TrEMBL record:
<feature type="binding site">
    <location>
        <position position="212"/>
    </location>
    <ligand>
        <name>NAD(+)</name>
    </ligand>
</feature>
<comment type="pathway">
    <text>Cofactor biosynthesis; NAD(+) biosynthesis; iminoaspartate from L-aspartate (dehydrogenase route): step 1/1.</text>
</comment>
<feature type="binding site">
    <location>
        <position position="140"/>
    </location>
    <ligand>
        <name>NAD(+)</name>
    </ligand>
</feature>
<dbReference type="Pfam" id="PF01958">
    <property type="entry name" value="Asp_DH_C"/>
</dbReference>
<keyword id="KW-0521">NADP</keyword>
<feature type="domain" description="Aspartate dehydrogenase">
    <location>
        <begin position="190"/>
        <end position="223"/>
    </location>
</feature>
<dbReference type="InterPro" id="IPR036291">
    <property type="entry name" value="NAD(P)-bd_dom_sf"/>
</dbReference>
<keyword id="KW-0520">NAD</keyword>
<feature type="domain" description="Aspartate dehydrogenase">
    <location>
        <begin position="250"/>
        <end position="307"/>
    </location>
</feature>
<feature type="domain" description="Aspartate/homoserine dehydrogenase NAD-binding">
    <location>
        <begin position="22"/>
        <end position="128"/>
    </location>
</feature>
<keyword id="KW-0560">Oxidoreductase</keyword>
<feature type="active site">
    <location>
        <position position="273"/>
    </location>
</feature>
<comment type="similarity">
    <text>Belongs to the L-aspartate dehydrogenase family.</text>
</comment>
<comment type="function">
    <text>Specifically catalyzes the NAD or NADP-dependent dehydrogenation of L-aspartate to iminoaspartate.</text>
</comment>
<dbReference type="InterPro" id="IPR005106">
    <property type="entry name" value="Asp/hSer_DH_NAD-bd"/>
</dbReference>
<protein>
    <recommendedName>
        <fullName>L-aspartate dehydrogenase</fullName>
        <ecNumber>1.4.1.21</ecNumber>
    </recommendedName>
</protein>
<dbReference type="InterPro" id="IPR002811">
    <property type="entry name" value="Asp_DH"/>
</dbReference>
Amino acid sequence: MTPATHHSPGTPAPPARVLLLGFGAIGRHVATLLAPEREAGLLRMCAAERDVSAHRERAVPGVELSTTGTDTDCPTWDEALAATDLVVECAGVEPAGEYGPGVVAAGIDLVLTSVGALADPGTARRLLAGPGRLWVTNGAIGGFDVLGAAADSGGLDAVRIRTSKLPTSLLRPWMIETEKAELRALRPGDEPVTVFSGGPAEAIERFPANVNVAVGLAWATRGRTQPGGDGAGDGAGVGPQAGGAEEAELLQRSLDRVRVELVADPDAGRSRHAILATGDAGRFELTFESAPSPENPRTSGLTALSVTRTVREALNLT
Ligand SMILES: NC(=O)C1=CN([C@@H]2O[C@H](COP(=O)(O)OP(=O)(O)OC[C@H]3O[C@@H](n4cnc5c(N)ncnc54)[C@H](O)[C@@H]3O)[C@@H](O)[C@H]2O)C=CC1
Ligand SMILES: O=C([O-])CC(=O)C(=O)O
């Protein structure tokens, strides 16, 4: 539902009610970027966290808190959701899969930041099943107008992404000690080390906070099955989807095509995403090195900017 478009002519639109799931680096940055809309009375914002008490001292003006946990002095997730027009997930792949399907099933639109959640076929089907609309943010990469157009025409055979990050940002609990030690020992000037090479589904399982972009790329290049169809698969990487089961199937095929390389680079002052897509449509090479997030230097700041843009689009605030 988009309140900006569902009101009687002549009366001012009521503020859109936005619920952030997760109030970490991205959620806080998005809340800050949307301050002008809050101050203009165009939207009201609430943020759900597991442990609200840990967030009280870092309040963002005009953002109420609610909880997915056991705090008793603020609205519960269900209470907050009942008073929401748009949920913006920026909590992680696991919470996206846990809460996202219930949001769209309740008929509420969902902006997905942890796009990696779509790599699980069951979760993807539920997220795309409606009646709430799924908006898949571009996140830390883009150029999806070009890549989507090429994929829509069947013009891409190979799609690759090489993501380079600082070694310590790639440490994961499942790594064996020697692997962790190798990453910790890397110093500027050392040769980069490839920590993963394969498909997006396996990549996101191993590195859920680092390769959402790879699943986002698969989403953007899923193509379409209905020439001149109903707008589904318009390739922009964001937008309402029709025909959820078909979209989920296209995505699965696209996930099989995308190849991912994740690299620990001690000289990667900024996270770097290099995309190469080739086929009958041509050869497309795109590289992204965005400024870091002001809240977390290991995350691309572009993600919060993309999410903010997606929120504005979903609410017709552009
Ligand atoms: N699409 C893209 O290009 C990108 C996507 N991401 C995704 O965005 C996610 C968030 O990123 P950051 O804000 O940097 O992480 P963060 O760790 O700073 O913030 C996540 C917040 O979500 C909260 N959270 C986790 N589980 C929750 C639950 N069940 N209920 C309520 N709150 C919960 C955490 O307490 C934390 O405050 C990442 O985990 C990743 O999946 C991140 C970067 C790029
Ligand atoms: O922030 C970035 O550079 C990308 C990222 O972590 C992800 O895609 O999960």
